[in-house]
């Protein structure tokens, strides 16, 4: 089975990450299931483009209708699979399924046309491998027209059988009522017009009796033979878990190679997109809701260099706690400073800052907007969290032993149960492990001894500090408001723990890649492009 979905199950973000970051406060379980699987690098931009379309104009309405149609396709497919083999019900169910399949494909074609013509996309968001809609459009093949012709050829047979008056109700309902009256309805109407009083008819919810099914097959042999041909087109062929197969498929397989794509594969693949379309609509709806409350969002630049840089990054999980004024903070991780300790007063916003980094990284990895004014992020494949309140010492050691170079670790108050001397020693050892593994990380700790370690350090800054050379947010303190603290409210910001003006100037230069090392790299690249000597 080809892999049409933009993600695969070779990389899975552990469920504990979503628990620690409180993702389920803002997204339902179905959306979290998609967040667990980051986009493959080659499809990340496709998903970003899709979200751009969903957040502006008419496309979202069309996409919602498409999602509803996919759900209806799944319902009809389940009905077809539940029907007995070689039955008239199975044939009629196949006819409904094929008709809906062709209708869904027509809706998809309209989505693709709208995608190409819509003007809300930026000039640099055209994915080199096509768009999200293009991937599904590759399911379209010459066979579809042949399928349509076979369905049309069966319509007289379908109408003949439907005129028999068959109408089943409830969950087992298979065959829709015909457009006109059935024979029994005509007889009842005529009887009433002649003055006969008919007793109320009871509708019984039941499946079609096998004897009645057999009788219809005998009564309409040619028609049921045609319907069986339709049913054979929709036969299962053993593909029972298309989503898992699609996700685990060969990620290098070209989607354009769809000449042998069977109707069953096409239906299963379309049905496999239901969770993803629901996820996209749920995230887009949340983004619009957050924006209405004054939260900025952007589409992060997909960096080819390992970095996580963002201006005014928000922890939007606080919206679920009815926190209106959320403190945004800047984030800067690159190869020169991959790891930071974060220290400060309790309730000063340290965990909020950590959640903002983690939550937005999860969104970025799925191609969704991030809640910041601007951002440039590398697609780290292994986000991980280690929170003191969710694991013991053995679990901490186990997770730290599994650090990968493409990891981004968020460590919250681990070793907090130890005394200052031992806790500090363990914290510094953890930082050394991260450094050796080449991974990125943030370590929230109350061990102030890390200030003397010489490692990069962040700290919480409150308005009470009244420090003139550091910007302080004018928003209410998020953590205190979220916890219901009604005492005196202070304002918080996370800042670099460096006190000199020169260090702040260097930070600004690095942020805009104007520091000496970045300039050397850029000059070298320019000379290489011009064919000159280094």
Q: Estimate percent helicity.
A: 40-55%
Order of helices and strands: HHHHHHHHHHHHHEEEEHEEHEHEEHEHH
Mean pLDDT: 76
pLDDT < 50 runs, ≥5 residues = 165-178, 238-259, 466-491, 499-505
* Total strand segments: 10
State Rg. 30 Å
Number of helices: 19
Going by helix content, strand content and strand pairing, the class is alpha/beta
Give the strand content. 5-15%
Would you give an account of this structure?
The chain is α/β, with parallel strands linked by helices and 534 residues long. It is 46% helix and 9% strand. The chain contains 19 helices and 10 strands. The chain has a 6-stranded mixed beta sheet with strand order 6-7-8-4-9-10. It has a 4-stranded mixed beta sheet with strand order 1-5-2-3, covered by helices on one side. The protein is elongated, with a radius of gyration of 30 Å.
Question: Topology, please?
Answer:
Blueprint: H1 15-20, H2 29-35, H3 41-54, H4 59-82, H5 88-117, H6 132-137, H7 143-162, H8 183-193, H9 210-219, H10 221-233, H11 242-247, H12 263-271, H13 274-292, E1 301-302, E2 308-313, E3 329-333, E4 339-343, H14 350-365, E5 374-377, E6 382-387, H15 393-400, E7 407-412, H16 420-437, E8 440-444, E9 457-462, H17 478-482, E10 492-496, H18 501-511, H19 516-529
Parallel strand pairs: 1-5, 4-8, 4-9, 6-7, 7-8
Antiparallel strand pairs: 2-3, 2-5, 9-10
